[in-house]
Amino acid sequence: MFLMLAVLAVAAAQSADAQTNDRHPTITTPSAQPGYRPTIRGGQPNTVAGTDCPADAAVTVSLNLNIGDFSSTAAANADGKWVTKLDVPAVVIDDTVEEAREWSLNVECGGLRNSLIVTYLDPLARTGPPPLVPLIVIGVCLTLLGAGALLMSRRVAR
């Protein structure tokens, strides 16, 4: 009987340990519409929130972009909920707009970790083909300059 109780106690302890190791914080904000990735926007504070952290645990939120690492901290309340603001600057990453890449938003609290794949949107990033208006204006000016030179050469020849 004692042996059976000992076996049950060990099994219960292993089950509880497995449940603890399977726990992770849940990231509730930023959220996204179905079929879309959550978005972190450059140039403004982004609210990041979640649940399932240990009560009163320190929470660290981090986002690693190719322009730098950004982080913010918060404290979970007694229910394990937390909210923080993550500031990411508006910076042109480069001409090959890398904002479409998947970035990992990481959360760590009380030894628990989780991540969420997000899209970084940079309001300063140039998207699309190069602007054509300056090229058209330059082309028209060169055409007019060439026509003027042609007319001047005819007048000089007479």
What does it look like?
- The chain is rod-shaped and about 95 Å long.
- The termini are far apart.
- It contains two helices and eight strands.
- 16% of the residues are buried.
- The chain has a five-stranded mixed beta sheet, with no helix packed on it. Strands 1-3-6 form a three-stranded antiparallel beta sheet, with no helix packed on it.
- The longest helix has 25 residues, at 133-157.
- By secondary structure, the chain is an alpha+beta fold.
In short:
Helix content is 29%, strand content 35%. The N terminus is likely disordered.
What is the 3D form?
Answer: rod-shaped
Helix content: 25-40%
Question: Strand tally, please?
Answer: 8
With strands numbered from the N-terminus, the spatial order across the biggest sheet is 2-8-7-4-5
Task: Pick out its properties.
single chain, 158 residues, alpha+beta, 5-stranded mixed β-sheet, 3-stranded antiparallel β-sheet, 8 strands, 29% helix, disordered N terminus
List the helices and strands and how they pair.
Blueprint: H1 2-22, E1 26-29, E2 39-41, E3 44-51, E4 58-65, E5 68-75, E6 82-88, E7 102-109, E8 112-121, H2 133-157
Parallel strand pairs: 2-8
Antiparallel strand pairs: 1-3, 3-6, 4-5, 4-7, 7-8
